[in-house]
Amino acid sequence: MTTAQNDDDARLTELDEATWSFVEDFATSWVSTNNSRMDGRVLALLIIVDEPYLSSARIAELLRASTGAVSTATRSLVSVGFIKRHSVPGDRSHYFRVEDDVWGNFLSGEREYLRRMKATVLGGMSLVDAAGPRTRLRNAERYMTWLEGYHRKMLADWEAFRDAPDDEPPKDETR
């Protein structure tokens, strides 16, 4: 990554080739799970830069992307919990940051999605009497209930794994 030479302006000015490659590789992997390439590029940038937060204008500049594309990506990433808005007193710009544990934070945020989806499914159940749709909606509601509880266990397991010493072999509880 290239930074300005002046200590008063030691902010990132452009991405070096290796960093750019990481951002694009991350975005390619991100797209393979049916997500937006720009979402992947923005998330990768926020993960790889050594700055506590970036403005949407800086994100657009560093990624050589339109502000509209960055705006759409940041809204999407905030809505699912991958990034967070950050405010700077007296500044009306939009700033974004990523948590050190972006994946655990996502897992926590996913529970809110499950609660919203479960409420939607329950609303659908009140609309139908036919056995087929009711069975499908009931299974969806049961799945959301089960997964919501499982997320708590999964998050606790993740935090224990994350905080364990690196030289301690992980317990494989999937077998």
UniProtKB/TrEMBL annotation:
Coiled coil: none
Keyword DNA-binding: yes
GO terms, molecular function: DNA binding
Protein name as catalogued: Transcriptional regulator
Span of the signal peptide: none
InterPro entries to which the protein is assigned, alphabetical: HTH-GbsR_regulator, WH-like_DNA-bd_sf, WH_DNA-bd_sf
Protein keywords: DNA-binding, Transcription, Transcription regulation
Taxonomy, superkingdom: Bacteria
Annotated transmembrane regions: none
